[in-house]
Design a protein that fits this description.
The structure holds two protein chains of two kinds. Chain A is α+β, with helices and mostly antiparallel strands. Chain A has eight helices and 20 strands. In chain A, helix 2 crosses helix 3 and helix 3 packs across helix 4. In chain A, 39% of the residues are buried. Chain B is mainly α. Helices cover 76% and strands 0% of the residues of chain B. Chain B is built from 13 helices and no strands. Classes of the chains: A alpha+beta, B mainly alpha. The structure holds adenosine-5'-triphosphate and magnesium ion (MG). The site of magnesium ion has 2 residues of chain A, from helix 1.
Chain lengths: 353, 289
């Protein structure tokens, strides 16, 4: 295992910049997840680490080795593909032994390592099967065992679970995570499933349009999103467009004066987490209190999602617990909503017409 | 319609069975019929002046296998076909790989370029080669003009000319067959091999070659059969002294009017092609399965 460092990595295709100035440091044994919308450059970044794409600029270091210009077969990265990419003409055991064979390890010494790798992924006894005789979940485990057998410096996973059904995905998620901890594997996983990212990662990297928006733990990303994009991408946020009237005072487009903990000035967006908003009696103690008209209510069992309109231009979503006995707001009702001064996060905004 | 509902799988089999009927009839009438007739003719006697006398004799086969000239023609044909097939495979594989893996916008154009030679008929193409290879042809003229050589190269009417000509005809078949099979191999599988420590040579040997084997078999069988039976190319580029089996058969039928012997040669050519193909298949399958 080893630490991995990516410095100012860039990939340009003709006019198009797929990855732009990406710098990430991954500690030994850390599980890092690359998260972002489709086309943001996650796969491109991962494939540059694996050595399949030559970066336009930047540096990749695994352990003490600068691998930027090394071909994939000299990098010792364990790779698991979304399509698993097992060798269809080899048995499970041959698939897992392949990396060892390439490392010129004698057949007699390969066997115990193959058995061990298959035991780790709980696939004992299927050695002689061919990939086509396995279920999707089993193929996925073979792919993992094959990558683990070479004792890679880093493990790279590109959406490894997206071909599995929901229930299996949950199981395999936990298994991969446990295995990664147990073996202390430095791991990068790519996904666009937020729940998967949040449950598995030590730290997450949020990317958008080829750029790293924020790197941090789940809590950091949720509590202190670095920008409007992260605030909207990790969890949900309601946004009010407006401008800072003065330090600590935000004026929404609809003319609401909102007190907040921000010192910025100029056009800005206020982001609010739906569950940090209170209604009715709970709102009484809040620094910000406004009357609002209920537009839509979604019943989610334990929770209620309520769309409210504060002014013609200001709409927000709030989420409240569904308490027994409490009157459930109905569309058209006027209610009071409120939130604490520090619940609203302010991001500067490009002034638009 | 039967009254009892049929199991779906059974119904499918029946339908599939019916769908192969037209092809089966076509093959039976168009191929097996003539072959059977040829075989029957080959057992007849040839009496000059009387054309063909019904009989049941193996003298035509005996004549072929006891005459050094005919054996030589057979050996030469097999040798040329094997050489052409091997060269087609060696040259065709890289080309097919590039065609299969390219992400270029011009991929279709490239494929068209590979197929283009097939738009020109065999005879026309061979005539083209003649003008290029002849002692006063383009190649010799330019080499001599440049002072590289002072005697014209003897390419026309040699085995080399025939081999070059047949390769030019067969290469597109090899390339297209391989290309379609390589396209079906998931790129990620090659990448997986790389990431596991296999360099390009090891990846090729352990992954690409075995996975492309169906295409390699199909391509080599196709080019081998075409090369064994080549007619226009050996006639035009090999000249009268460079006999191969295809022209030999034609000569017996059209010029000598010796149908029984022509039938026997046809049958020997067909059997040799079939046996060599099967033998090669068996060897390859034993190694790679
Ligand atoms: N070979 C290429 N030539 C040109 N553009 C490319 C090439 N490969 C990728 N791109 C572009 O680079 C961007 C990033 O692609 P990438 O595959 O890294 O996205 P991703 O984040 O993995 O998305 P997804 O979640 O959909 O897999 C995309 O907009 C894509 O169109
Ligand atoms: Mg991707």
């Amino acid at each position: 295992m080893a630490r991995l460092s990516i410095e100012h990595l860039r990939k340009v295709y003709g006019e198009f910049t797929a990855v732009d100035d990406c710098s990430i440091d991954i500690a030994d044994g850390e599980f890092l997840v690359l998260l972002g919308p489709s086309g943001c450059g996650k796969t491109t970044t991962l494939r540059m680490v694996a050595g399949f794409i030559q970066p336009t600029a930047g540096k990749i270091t695994i352990g003490e080795r600068d691998v930027t210009t090394l071909p994939p077969w000299k990098r010792n990265c364990g790779l698991v593909f979304q399509s698993y990419a097992l060798f269809p003409h080899m048995t499970v055991a041959e698939n897992v032994a392949f990396g060892l064979e390439m490392r010129k390890i004698a057949p007699a010494d390969r066997a115990p390592r193959v058995t061990e790798a298959l035991r780790l992924v709980r696939l004992t006894g299927l050695d002689e099967r061919y990939p086509r005789q396995l279920s999707g979940g089993q193929q996925q485990r073979v792919a993992l065992a094959r990558a683990l057998a070479i004792e890679p410096d880093v493990l790279l996973l590109d959406e490894p679970l997206s071909n599995l059904d929901a229930k299996l995905r949950q199981e395999v998620r936990v298994e991969i995570r446990d295995l990664q901890r147990k073996l202390g594997l430095t791991t990068i996983m790519v996904t666009h499933d937020q729940e998967e990212a949040l449950t598995m990662a030590d730290r997450l990297v949020v990317m958008e349009k080829g750029m790293v928006r924020q790197i941090g733990t789940q809590r950091e990303l949720y509590e202190k999103p670095a920008d409007r994009f992260v605030a909207g991408f990790i969890g949900r946020s309601a946004f009010l467009d407006g401008a800072m009237a003065e330090a600590g005072r935000f004026r929404s487009g609809g003319g609401l004066d909102i007190s907040c903990k921000a010192t910025a000035s100029g056009p800005a967006t206020l982001a609010l987490r739906p569950e940090r908003l209170a209604i009715g009696a709970d709102a009484e103690a809040c620094a910000n209190r406004f009357p609002a008209r209920v537009e839509h209510v979604s019943y989610l069992g334990a929770l209620l999602d309520i769309d409210v309109r504060l002014t013609e231009q200001d709409r927000i979503l709030l989420q409240v617990p569904n308490r027994p006995g409490a009157a459930e707001p109905k569309p058209g009702d006027m209610i009071t909503i409120g939130w604490a001064e520090d619940a609203g996060l302010v991001y500067p905004r490009e002034a638009k017409a | 319609m039967s009254i009892a509902p049929e199991p779906v799988a059974g119904a499918r089999t029946n339908l599939a069975g019916m769908l192969v009927v037209p092809a089966t009839i076509f093959v039976a009438i168009g191929l097996i019929g003539p072959v059977a007739i040829l075989f029957r003719y080959s057992l007849n006697q040839f009496v000059p002046g009387q054309f063909m006398v019904d009989g049941l004799t193996i003298e035509n086969y005996v004549k072929f296998f006891t005459d050094g000239f005919y054996l030589n023609v057979l050996w030469r044909t097999v040798r040329v076909a094997v050489i052409c097939t091997i060269i087609c495979l060696i040259m065709g594989f890289p080309l097919a790989y590039v065609l299969a893996r390219t992400e270029s916008r011009f991929k279709n154009l490239l494929i068209m370029l590979v197929v283009l030679p097939l738009f020109v008929g065999n005879a026309v193409r061979a005539a083209g080669w003649m003008t290029a290879f002849g002692s006063k042809g383009a190649l010799n003229a330019s080499l001599m003009g440049l002072g590289v050589i002072d005697q014209p190269l003897e390419i026309m009417f040699t085995e080399t000319a025939v081999i070059i000509g047949i390769i030019a005809v067969n290469l597109p078949f090899m390339v297209l067959t391989l290309q379609s099979v390589i396209e079906g191999i998931n790129r990620n599988v090659e990448e997986a091999a790389f990431s596991l420590g296999a360099g390009p040579a090891a990846m090729f040997r352990r992954v690409l070659w075995p996975l492309a084997m169906p295409g390699i078999l199909a391509g080599t069988i196709l080019t081998f059969i075409l090369a064994m039976n080549a007619y226009a190319t050996p006639v035009l580029l090999g000249g009268p002294k460079f006999q191969t089996m295809g022209p030999l058969v034609y000569g017996q039928f059209a010029q000598q009017n010796n149908w029984p012997f022509g039938g026997a040669i046809s049958f020997i050519l067909m059997t040799a092609t079939l046996l060599l193909t099967i033998a090669a298949n068996l060897i390859v399958q034993r190694r790679y399965r």
